[in-house]
Amino acid sequence: MEEKAKFRFAVMGAGHISHKFCDAVSLIDECEITAIASRDLKKARKVAHKYGIAAAYDSYEQMLIDEKPDAVYISVTTNAHYDLAMLCMAHDTPILCEKAMFRSACEAEDVFRHSKEQGIFAMEAMWSLFLPNIRQARQWIEEGKIGDITLGRFDIGFQAEKNPKNRFYNPDLGGGACYDILVYAYDILTWLIGQPVQGTSVQAVYTNDGVDKTDIVQLEFPDCMGVLTATFEANLGDQEQAVVYGSRGKIVIPHAHHGKECCLYVEGEEPVTWKDDKTINGFVYEIQEVMSCIERGEIESSTVPHEMTMRTSLLFDKIYE
Amino acid sequence: MEEKAKFRFAVMGAGHISHKFCDAVSLIDECEITAIASRDLKKARKVAHKYGIAAAYDSYEQMLIDEKPDAVYISVTTNAHYDLAMLCMAHDTPILCEKAMFRSACEAEDVFRHSKEQGIFAMEAMWSLFLPNIRQARQWIEEGKIGDITLGRFDIGFQAEKNPKNRFYNPDLGGGACYDILVYAYDILTWLIGQPVQGTSVQAVYTNDGVDKTDIVQLEFPDCMGVLTATFEANLGDQEQAVVYGSRGKIVIPHAHHGKECCLYVEGEEPVTWKDDKTINGFVYEIQEVMSCIERGEIESSTVPHEMTMRTSLLFDKIYE
Which residues from chain A sit within 8 angstroms of residue B153, using beta carbons? Predict the structure, then answer.
């Protein structure tokens, strides 16, 4: 019996995050990484060597031409996502693109139009939505454990090194709290609440270079509110969490963008803490989603649909209007 | 040597909160309550009996005429504050008025204009600003313990009994989360941060009667942001707190509108918890402020100036515009 061919990923970018992706792929039998490209060939070769990747390129396009991968993982900084996504579209190649996928609604519209017209899969790497503790929290909400939702909040923040040249603060690298962390807050909270967002209001504080360093977003849902806080200027510590309040209780998710726990508090009952003790690398689930969607011939994920990315892109437009 | 005459308060309203005020006055040697009035004479008599108050009235005006108190404490529900404040102004009587003092900027302007023109003291009973733990927190901020402030937040909320006739939800009694609890969040956080508010954005959820049950407010300061959450629909529990983040650390004040603690976290140092172990009744300090301001011939408190009440009244206008 012939073994089913492995799903072949290629990786664009050889920075920190590419390592986590390569590590995740190594945990999944059904896929492999066949090539990695970076403008800095040495960096690409280093990652290739570490993870046993056959080919390293200094040209993204050459990699697409030579390798014809089943999908590309775009792991470069946000500023370069649009160009590489369009390059992949030009080569009919499906993409999983690091968050924030785009800097503006205009970029998002363009890529998703190509995705739809050409029937090519495209998804933002919002890996947290696939984490077991986030899934458990949403299940509790859907089961009505906390009754009707009245309020949701998501707080995320740390003190980024105050260097105008780093990826947090450098506008040329797509720096900004909205791209780096607010995107988590928006996607995870709206996904948990599962209701349409009817109104959004944003206030931000900017650096002298015009990069947003603190964002506060109010979300209006049909019968509840949400509030998101994202900052590069405060170590939130224990206060970095998502909380969904309901008429009968609340759900607390510590460090909700990368955590392993969720806690259910129902009035009159003992609190329940649910712990994810099986996840080794949280990227595994989104990678499985990509493979499964592409195998089914879909152009988007139902968990991270184009529309979700469009909404955060519109939010970025509000912050940078 | 003749004993200095005691400062003579009269109380309008005989509900729950009037008891706490009477109790506080009983702890201060230099003042007394000489009369209490309620539309329900039985209630007034009950409080008078409990606290040894000489006179009980069913007419607010008659009490002012007969007693000529040094100041009146207005403890009725918010809907009636304006009329009683104007009545006191008409009788040249200084006032301490429960929060929220007014329902709209229009009411506030009117009373404060009279206060200024006639030289009569008027102050909102924002007692929390005088609490030792809040003072300690502000002192830490002024001393630069947490460096430059980057973000402030204030969360306050509980599940109010869902009865459209109670003081929380009944518009005829001045119900609404903004009047009952948001006012604390706004005043305490802005006072702690001590910077001018340059922009305010509000989103609220309303009951079918049009009463706000959840409010989220973004505050823009010169170089930081604030976010306030106030709700009648969620028991915030441990998350009911004020937190001020700075470049070097943070200050956390649990249940900041009536708490006794504040905690200082400075990076690289052991956390410090400051506990107020002397306060018996938190209203004492605001009462001392009223007496001291009136004795000095002032028409407003520098801690709770008219302008502070004007700003929250303008905020209410935004919520009810």
Answer: 229
